[in-house]
Amino acid sequence: MSFRNPLYIRLASFALACILLAACAKQPTTEYTPVSESKADAIARQIDISKQGLTSWNDLAPALESSLAYVNRKPADGVALKRDILTITWGELRAGLLLMRNLLPQLDQDPSLLGKHFRFVQISKDPKFTSYYEPAIEANLTPSSVYAYPIYSVPGDLQSVDLTPFHPRFKGERLYYRLENGKVVPYFHRADIDSDKKLSNKGLEIAWAKDPVDIFFLQVQGSGRLILPDGHEMHVLYAGKNGHQYVSLGRVMKEAGLLGPDNISMQSIREYLDRNPQKMQELLNTNPSYVFFRLSDKGPFGAMNQPLTARVSLATDPLLLPLGSLMTFTIPLPDKGPAGEFRQGTPFTGIGLAQDTGGAIKGHRLDFFSGYGEEATWVAGHMNTPGSVWIMLPRIP
């Protein structure tokens, strides 16, 4: 592309402005602390895969194969993560996944093998765990007075550019935009799309839902299932986004005094919106981020374009845990009391794989994929807790 191209000049000017702003911001720091072999052994013995819906360690094999399919495409000597005392190559991640795959047949009898064969490196700064799930929403492939709210595919005028060449600080970042009278402008935000109907009647609708709140939470989760009138199910998968920053609706409602600080969950947000339909769209519009979808017979898939595994797959910030990373984590699972009230469950230690990313998953936050169904919905709606996480790397002989 020629440097005299007006579009290139405008994008370069925008990127320069971003660099100047970023230079003023303090970059987050993360400490990676290797643990002793005895501590690694203790962590390994605490792992309870039954809490993850696994009856045997061998059940982990498909999820490992998904991560290997992604990591195998990376250069073995390429750097997957570089932070202070810790540098991890894609080759090391691959070696760890292969080692775990080879150990699976023995782990039902002797899980302590993990402590003997792996280094456990703890991520400090008290990482926070949230959860996401695969929602089910009532929808139809044709519109009607009942199914009136569109789910959109990626618009043809949505453009993006990789900002990595402009500055190392923007590695992996993209700018999303559209052209208006030859000028680069931000793409339409939620209010433009849902309230002002900027995308209506452009042939972008792939389905129509009964409830706009269902679509909002579908976008937050990134994928889901459509339940059609005849009972048939279709997967609806992430296809793109408008590039606007994600804003937490729960945080907006808490700051506005609409929800108490101890009563913020997906369920409480939905209950408030159901009781106050006149405020619904205004509140939804406070999150300018918008997600576009595609239909599929299979799913859900993560950022590696590989299937996700319930209670094993996690969405992470690649600057904290690169995609393909093998990890151990300790978190409490949300529990439901006899009256249906939320109770913090007993912490458990599980095995995890970094297989997804998310617009809101930045820094020391990990998003636990809880799966599909009523229990998965409950866990995803209520998990917001500190936890512990260790990257697992093969021991150096």
From TrEMBL:
Its EC number is 4.2.2.n1. Keywords: Cell wall biogenesis/degradation, Lyase, Signal. Residues 136-294 form the Lytic transglycosylase MltA domain. GO terms for biological process: cell wall organization; peptidoglycan catabolic process; peptidoglycan turnover. GO terms for cellular component: outer membrane. PROSITE patterns: PROKAR_LIPOPROTEIN (PS51257). It catalyses: Exolytic cleavage of the (1->4)-beta-glycosidic linkage between N-acetylmuramic acid (MurNAc) and N-acetylglucosamine (GlcNAc) residues in peptidoglycan, from either the reducing or the non-reducing ends of the peptidoglycan chains, with concomitant formation of a 1,6-anhydrobond in the MurNAc residue. Coiled coil: none annotated. InterPro entries: 3D_dom (IPR010611), MltA (IPR026044), MltA_B (IPR005300), RlpA-like_sf (IPR036908). Residues 1-25 form the signal peptide. PANTHER family: MEMBRANE-BOUND LYTIC MUREIN TRANSGLYCOSYLASE A. This is peptidoglycan lytic exotransglycosylase. It comes from Desulfovibrio subterraneus.
